[in-house]
Amino acid sequence: MGIPFSREHARPRCQCSTEPSVRISKYVEGEAEKLANPLKQVQSQDMEGQERQRVRRLEATRRMRALSQCPSPPVSTPGLPIAEPTRSFWTYPPSAILARLVQDPDGNQCAAVPEYADVVVIGSGISGASFVRTLLNADRRRVNKGEHEHKRLSVVMLEAYDACSGATGRNGGHINPPLYHDYEELKNTLGLRAAQHIIRFRLAHLEIQQRVGETDAPDADCRTVEAVDVYYDEETFEEAKRLLKVYKRDMPVEGQQYECVVGEAARKRYHLSEYALGCIATRAGAVHPYRFVAGVLTRLLEDHPKQ
Asked: Which residues form the FAD dependent oxidoreductase domain (predicted)?
């Protein structure tokens, strides 16, 4: 696995269309189809739910088609990365992974770029690192089982600056996905089963990330913490309690992790302002994202040196 980090490889992620009327139409049709397909696959348990989904599909399609009247596509180029970006606090001290790389003539960290690769990944943040880890580990398992008739996959990862120098390197590391906050809307839009599947997928991040942290990035401080949503507005707090009640009713096992604390009890337990009306607390996680990704990439280089 090679990980080149050179500015010369940075490219705009997209280009503005020179034929907006044609391309926006194709773009809108494609996006409308993507939005409609998942809804078509979800079957509600009752006729009322099916009718609600049909109406939402029609509304979503109508909105997407309306975009075709826009004078230009809703995309634009972000431009090339700047020459000397501000470095995030979280990236100090630099990861030891940079010691594996060499410097190009301009003094930038850069590994040798191979002439050929099966897979090229743009970006070395948590998304890129997670994808490559899953890909290479699965590829190795298939080889060990004798399912591969050909050689192992080769992967190249490109980054404009240093490893994990983008959004992940600037992240504070909170692992606290929205659950009860989004559940009712997901249920009304996609149906009960799809909503529960999405919620459980979000919940799985906490356990999986901690497990990977223990094996691949022990210095990333992966840990379990308590997350607290504090409310100062009565109307907002009442709505949050209602959403939580719906969530607990439909997902009683997952709902056990939540606790609603009201009034003086909340202010005393969490040392809150006198203006706090209450809070909703649950189990969450925390991690040092830069160290986490650097640890994963380092482990990949050790486990798959030729890939």
From this structure: 118-300
